[in-house]
Amino acid sequence: MKKFTINGNENNPATLKVIVANNFRKDKCEVKIASSNGDNSEFLPHLVVNSSEDYVFMPNAALWILLQPPKELTKKVREFLEIEATVLAPLLATILGTTNKLEASKKHSVLQVLGIINSQLNSSKFLVKDTLTIADIAIFSTLYPVLKVETWTREFLLELTALQTWLSYLELLPEFKDGISKVFCQKISSGQVTEQSNLDLLKTQLSAKGVVSETVVVTPEELNAAKLAWNKLKNQLPKLKVPQSVVLPKPGEKNVFITSSLPYVNNVPHLGNIIGCVLSADVFARYSRLCNNNTLYICGTDEYGTATETKALEEGLSCQTICDKYFEIHRDVYEWFNISFDSFGRTSTPLQTEIAQSLFLRLNNNGFMFTQSVDQLHCEKCNRYLADRFVEGGCPNVGCDYEDARGDQCDKCGKLVNAVELKNPKCKICGNTPKLKSSSQFYIDLPKLEPLLLHWIKKSSPGWSHNADVIAGTWLKEGLKPRCITRDLQWGVPVPLDGYRHKVFYVWFDAPIGYMSISKAYTEKYEEWWRPSQDTDVKLYQFMAKDNVPFHAILFPAILLGANQNYVTVSHIMATEYLNYEDGKFSKSRGIGVFGTDAKNTKIPSDVWRFYLLFIRPETQDSSFSWDDLVTKNNSELLNNLGNFINRALTFVKNNFNKTIPQMDLLPDDYTLLALCTREVKGYINALEKCRLRDGIRHILSISRHGNQYMQQNQPWVKIKEGNTGKIRAGTIVGLCANLAALLSTLLQPYMPETSGKLKNQLTYSDFVLNPNNVEIVNLLPEGHKIGDPQPLFDKIEPELAEEYKKKFAGDQESRKSPKDAGKPTANNNITLNDDLETLQEAVSKQGMVVRKLKESGMSKSVWQPEVAKLLELKQRLAKVSGVDLTLKPSKKK
Amino acid sequence: MTTKHSQHLTDIAKYLNVPLGKISKNDQLYARISNNKKTIGILNIIFSLVKDSKSNLGGLEITEEALIHQWLEFGIIYASDGNSKQNNQTLLKNLNNILTTKTYLVGQRLTIADVFLYYSLLNIMETLPNFEKENYINVSRWFDNIQQDPSLRQNYNLIDFSTIYLSNGLGKHRV
């Protein structure tokens, strides 16, 4: 036997590796540990082979000598060692070695590696099969500093439960304990404590989130409950309600009314919009239906207002046509995402006019409205008041002599402009000079409504998300001010009072009333939802992103309370934070990020989009969409964990039991599994009741993780070969797993409806009713139940695809259009247009938008100046053609 | 890890006169598919190529195997094209110290470790000015020895280690 000497240094994870490996040897080597700050030019740690003086300075090679892995595991061990030495350790060294902000790309790479490790640990006890090898020692040691420091733990380990379990298991083994105390103890004399408390902290955090159970021991009560539930007769179970064509609330039942904030019609929703409102509300609505609640989920497009008018002018279409066009785009996107609206309506309907007008009159009669005059520019020729965007003139800002400043902002100096201060203002539509006229507008008297609102908020806000509570609090703290709710526009609901009939309601008043008109469009009996009878309890849940909170927490309740008609007010405002795109912002104006229509054109199924968006739902803080992460989550969680478990179980039933659920004789171990899964189902129900949708997914994944571990431990493929008793045992194991698959098919339904449907087909099974008051796992698929054909539920996504999409969606929307669109004259095409009036007009208005967007996005002058030049040139050419010179200075005026 | 590693694998396969098969990179590691067998990781791929070639360039016993592992890992981690000049200097300095008493990296004979490190260091050595080669005299000796085999060198240029520049005194004056 060769003799070795180990030389190492303190606080070095690589030294830890070598010492731990040595601890596993029968004949221990001599160990010398230098203090970490010793000035030593040698490689540390290293191993000296005493006989040959061979010098082994790469730690993993030293491990190989000290603790050679079994021959049949060599390849797999070497694979893990390589990923540890060439990827994980160098990355962590640069991350942990600096105090700089963690780079996103590095974090992704680390998480990718950890994801691979985690999914490996889902299916085996150690990294390579169920044998502890130097692969475990190497990776544990490299991760040890991460485990020790809370911020890094949070950053890297929080969601990786299998990895977490494995780390804490290894840490307690005597060979590891000894190594840790030798390498890391001296430095931290209070260290044992710090170290331990961090680990404890992590565990409590994880268990508080319901992600990991503190111990895998179940109580006798839990075991008993699991047993009772399993042996319940299936015909005692309640049945899911038959879906009604019109859902109405019923006395004595749970009635859940859900809305998601109405998207503005004139653009395409991006992923942030989708997760912020419609998708979140959809998960909750689907869950609520599974609980047999009378559930109504409505949404629609918000269509009135200046922006639509501008867009209509730009595209040369009527407002109604514009709305029709974009309404369809919205509807198609949500349809593709499988959003289960009971009704997706729109606000430009006669019903909207009827309800908005009657609510306005009521508030007016109740004394919550007053008028006040406002100065505004009026064009006599067009007979309209000009919204800021419809007037241009000389920039009033000192030092800027730009002649074509817009009513809200000057394109040249970039400063904000008050439209009435423009020099020589001109109507953008006809070119005439508008006059200053004062115009009377309606204000809602919020200060007068404040006492009602304060009282109401105290009662209602406990059910709101935290951010909604905070935002509403800020508004109230500052004191409410009257808000102008009418405008001199044409595209909107007219004010139903003489002298005001040419004015329309502003979005603040108009948009939330959309919820009411859309529900009226859905059913004539809409008042049963909005003004239920005394014996009927309706809970209103409104989903939105946080920017919409003031409308729903202040303005809309104020309107409803002021009307004094016993309207249902919101009991649960569920507001999300913002979703970023690859660490930047989604931008509608610059077209950065993935839009609803883009998602459809990827090769990624809508269920995977739903899963990932919900997995990263910005619940308590902003979160980021990342392509790399999407791929990792799909491949590790959906494919390797969830899909793998279900497919393994069902394929086994198909191949060995002729597609029939076999006889199941459960042993205590099997009930333990059921008890553990019952905990997860409880966690799931708790999370969804409180709309913590992110957590819900994690409980689903924990169930399949338990299932995978159970299969791995019990090895039905071995048992089946062990005679008749073995066959019954194997049957019990896979029968139980098939039952968990049935459980999962329902739990998955709110998140991934298509996958859930596929799975139910494979199981020949339908959803069961969730009962939040009594969570249990019953025998859903009894002995003798015939299943269908098992198929894989998920596909692998190749990382190359993510790279491709990352590039594709980095630019603006314009540039990713197909070549056939490229020939269309866009404002960015240089000026090669035919000089006909229409084309030029379109080009001018498009270029105008380009300039405006560039400036709104805060780009530097060097970026937008050339675009301004293009705009001016276009305007000159238009002038030549039309005879109206939009660029002329007043002095040159004919 | 950079894409140059796939080039090294190609070179090694050619040198060993075995088919390389299909090389791809997914997740973080390279993979080789040959004869319907998948091998993951550069180390495993190199060991599998040696095995296919039936040569004795691999490790014959456990210490040798571990030492080869060490040099392959060393090459992957430290001999990267993206290195800063300073990193390269550290690399060459360390290697120079280790090679003081050695003709080959592992034991007393040529192994796949020498072959891999030769390909890994080619770029660095090619761009190293003559007067610096002198500072790493042991590395230069080792490299010059290895590069003499034309089947290993393939189409790469012989790097000039002409001793006239490398003799101790002269070099120093030229700096």
From TrEMBL, chain A:
GO annotations under biological process? tRNA aminoacylation for protein translation
Q: Which CDD domains match?
A: Anticodon_Ia_Met, MetRS_core, MetRS_RNA
Reaction equations catalysed: tRNA(Met) + L-methionine + ATP = L-methionyl-tRNA(Met) + AMP + diphosphate
Residues forming the WHEP-TRS domain are 836-892
Q: What is its EC number?
A: 6.1.1.10
Q: Decide whether keyword ATP-binding is in the record.
A: yes
Which residues belong to any copy of the GST C-terminal domain?
Answer: 70-191
Spans of biased composition, class Basic and acidic residues? 809-823
PROSITE patterns this protein is in? AA_TRNA_LIGASE_I, GST_CTER, WHEP_TRS_2
A Pfam family annotated for this chain is WHEP-TRS
Cellular component terms, GO, for this chain's entry?
aminoacyl-tRNA synthetase multienzyme complex; cytoplasm
Cell compartment(s), UniProt: Cytoplasm
Swiss-Prot/TrEMBL keywords: Aminoacyl-tRNA synthetase, ATP-binding, Cytoplasm, Ligase, Nucleotide-binding, Protein biosynthesis, RNA-binding
| Residue numbers spanned by region Disordered | 809-834
The Swiss-Prot or TrEMBL record annotates one GO molecular function as: methionine-tRNA ligase activity
Top-level enzyme category: ligase
Q: Which family does it belong to?
A: Belongs to the class-I aminoacyl-tRNA synthetase family.
The protein here is known as: Methionine--tRNA ligase, cytoplasmic
**Per the UniProt entry, what species is this protein from, by scientific name?**
Hypothenemus hampei
UniProtKB/TrEMBL annotation, chain B:
Q: Which PROSITE patterns match?
A: GST_CTER (PS50405)
Q: Where is the GST C-terminal domain?
A: 36-175
Coiled coil stretches, renumbered: none
Record's Gene3D superfamilies? 1.20.1050.10
Q: What is this protein called?
A: GST C-terminal domain-containing protein
Stored InterPro entries = AIMP3/p18_C (IPR053837), Arc1-like_N (IPR053836), EEF1E1 (IPR042450), Glutathione-S-Trfase_C-like (IPR010987), Glutathione-S-Trfase_C_sf (IPR036282)
Recorded superkingdom: Eukaryota
Q: Which GO terms describe its cellular component?
A: protein-containing complex
* Organism of this sequence: Hypothenemus hampei
